[in-house]
Amino acid sequence: MSPVFPMLTVLSMFYYMCLRRRARTATRGEMNSRRAIESNTRALPINVEIVQYAKEVLDFSSHYGSENSMSYTMWNLAGIPNVYPSSGDFTQTAVFRTYGTWWDRCPSARLPFKRTPSTFCSQDYVELAFEEPVYPTAVHILETYHPGAVVRILACSANPYSQNPPAEVRWEILWSEAPTKVNGPQARQFTPCIKQINFPTNLIRLEVNSSLLDYYTELDAVVLHGVKERPVLSLKTSMIDMNDIDEDEDEEKFGCGMDTLNKQFSIVTLREWPTNGYFDKLPCELIQLILSHLTVPDLCRLAQTCKLLYQHCCDPLQYIHLSLQPYWARINDTSLEYLQSRCTLIQWLNLSWTGNRGAISVSGFSRFLKVCGSELVRLELSCGHFLNETCLEVITEMCPNLQELNLSSCDKIPPQAFNHIAKVGSLKRLILYRTKVEQTALLSILNFCSELQHLSLGSCVMIEDYDLIASMMGAKCKKLRSLDLWRCKNITESGIAELASGCQLLEELDLGWCPTLQSSTGCFTNLARKLPNLQKLFLTANRSVCDTDIEELAANCTHLRQLDILGTRMVSPASLRKLLESCKDLSLLDVSFCSQIDNRVVLELNANFPNVFIKKSFTQ
């Protein structure tokens, strides 16, 4: 046989493989002009596109609004638009809790985890359910104020309305990009080019990063376009872009299937080499230092190369600080089991966002902590909906050295379970934002955890008497440096007086949206006089804040860096000038909706105090 024919056969097979790959990825390249297939391409069969708005908001990490209303809450993303195409600050939109970098510059800011991959920059998320599962062809996000926060869109294989949950839940990234600065706060319809996937979905997740924004981003609605039948590419193809062949590496790196990561954890077959090359000449300490810059998946890949690097990559010293949040979609009981032998010395552990929809069981979490919890100092479990009372009991028993515990938005934990936290007397930081902690459990925690320095009770709606809580803090928590009482509904001047008298080391205090506090009682002037170390004070939406309060802050709190007095009608430009002249370190001043502070005044203050970000929001 002529050698030409085998060559033709190989080329034919290669061409066939390219076609199969193109079909498998559902013409991903058609969404990008650089990779577009040339003429005579059409999808088979021809499907009618379905357009649907979100039916329900299933889960989210935070929101600006209250748990008992619709204003500024994530629940506003369900249904048709309320505001779009209008621009401005509207209560009918979905707003996350934070924006900018201000939260990273206050006393309660936490140190970041090392080894966080550069591709993961998400800070918040929201998950939306739609009526009909479809193969997505487009996702439209209606942003009505300060757009540009969305950094990732994902689709899930699980149908939230199905009676038979799948054995394995898959998440696929439809689109991902680093945060960008958008010029202007005006409304827009954001429609990124999405990757086509090989399963139908009616569960979409948006992840956001608001660090580059000048104010809160506001989302109005999400529109999912898709077809019921999976598109199949016609074979009438005149050219295939060779760049597509390299994308398998991207899928392995960024894909959300659990199998990939678990296989990397469990690899035990190693290549045999006569020597380890130049690594034999390097000190072990230097190899450890080099490996400390790798992400967890990279460590797992490197461990497959040779026995020497396997030993270094599995050394517990490489896992002193471990964040699994970037891989939330791939972490399950099997992952934790594989990691147990490597995490016996772990001190910082971040399992935020992981384990939902049955990925991590109570028994799997408990087994891991029983092996790896003895040295834990910091435990991040934000949005861990698998957590229950048994989990909190295991934490308190297996983590005797725990100093920081984050249970933010763990809204599935029953109220009585929080009593266990009182057993951890070494706690210095406790985050209970959006949890169901009750008053009795919280009083017990405050009584026994006298080392607390940072406490977040924002949007804890089941606490009946915040004055009693504030009194206990003043009596027991003398070392408190930051306190978040965002949207507590019943604290009065009595509780504030007890707090200010007993917790005089406070540097950060959030009393935003606390309607029972009135300036006429002297509560804010009392704060200013008793807390000279204040660096951050949020009095958001308190209409009673007046010139006297601002002048007391200027006279007594000269270290102030951030002040939010959004919504007050009683503050004049003159008192703000005194504040800005006295507080040389002030960097953030929010005077949105302050009726006496118009745009002309803001421009004048900006000109005279250029180092201060003065925010004035608006509604059209």
UniProtKB/TrEMBL annotation:
- GO CC terms on record? SCF ubiquitin ligase complex
Family annotation (PANTHER family): F-BOX_LRR-REPEAT PROTEIN 4, PARTNER OF PAIRED, ISOFORM B-RELATED
Kindly provide the name given to this protein in its UniProt entry.
Answer: FBXL4 protein
Database matches in PROSITE patterns: FBOX (PS50181)
GO annotations under biological process?
Answer: SCF-dependent proteasomal ubiquitin-dependent protein catabolic process
Please give the organism: Dasyornis broadbenti
**By its UniProt entry, which InterPro entries does this protein fall under?**
F-box-like_dom_sf (IPR036047), F-box_dom (IPR001810), FBXL15_LRR (IPR057207), Leu-rich_rpt_Cys-con_subtyp (IPR006553), LRR_dom_sf (IPR032675)
Q: Where is the F-box domain?
A: 276-331
